[in-house]
Amino acid sequence: MVQVLMLNTSSQLQSVFAVRLENTVPKSVVFTDNRSIYVFGLYDGNLIKLKDEDGNIVQEISCKSVIGHAVVYSKRGIFIVDNATDGFTLYRLEGDGEPVRTFATGLPSVSVPKQVAFREEGKVVVGGSDHGLVYIFDQKTGQTLETLRHADTGLVQTISTHDLNGHCTIASTSPVPGHGKTTIKIWAYNYTLTQLLALLSMSIFLLMNYRDSFLRVKAAMIFDDEKDDKGEPTEGYIKNDIMMLWE
User: Fold this and answer.
1) Are 157 and 82 a contacting pair, CB within 8 Å?
2) How far apart are CA 205 and CA 162, in angstroms?
3) What is the DSSP letter of 223?
């Protein structure tokens, strides 16, 4: 069952609707800017789109895999799931259930949910693994851009990320059997500075090597605005200087 509540003017929770979904065990529920609610089924791999005012089903898509975790980036009309098989799979919200691409982290030693997130305005994907690494992928190509070593081995199930003023912060943690201490690591980098350095480097290169044609070069070609999705690498990307802030 999926139930939506709202906080009324008296600071009391008030029910908006409750809907029972047959044969679906909700794993993730996501609110989006288009006044829709997306429900992701754990075992059946279904994506169910609900109206936010009454819970009526608008659309249902089968992702054809178990869904360990799911996240939506509504501005680009995409979502990504932990497929519990070999990594994370990208889909379109208004698609037919066919995957766009897979971000591979290798075959799991144990099938457990691993969190995944979009960052840098949807241009990169951050996800955990079962062998101690946090992966950062190019969303357009599936290419691995960075790997952060959380631990030498073991699960990295929980990922949390935050963007603010061009700074990206990533938190990773791993489960510990029994009552042992859990390790939490915080990573951070400035992707706006990275883009500015790339722009400056390219500008200097063009000025030194193509002085006569410099004015005819469109600076917009340096950075990809991702208006299409042809699988081309994200132009202008250079390796981020990601620092671990805290453990």
Assistant:
1) no
2) 33
3) S
Which segment, 28-32, 197-201, 226-230, is predicted with the most confidence on average?
28-32
| Residues contacting 91, CB < 8 A, separation 6+ | 47, 61, 63, 78, 79, 80, 81, 97, 98, 99, 100
The contacts of residue 212 (CB under 8 Å, 6+ apart) are: none
One-letter amino acid for residue 183 of the chain: T
State pLDDT tens for residues 48-92: 999 988 999 999 999 988 999 999 999 999 999 999 889 999 999
Reduced to 3 states (helix: H, G, I; strand: E, B; else coil), residue 41 is strand
Across the chain, mean pLDDT equals: 82
Beta bridge partners of 80: 71, 90
78: left (phi over 0), alpha (psi -120 to 50) or beta: beta
Give, for 204, the enclosing helix (H) or strand (E).
helix 191-209
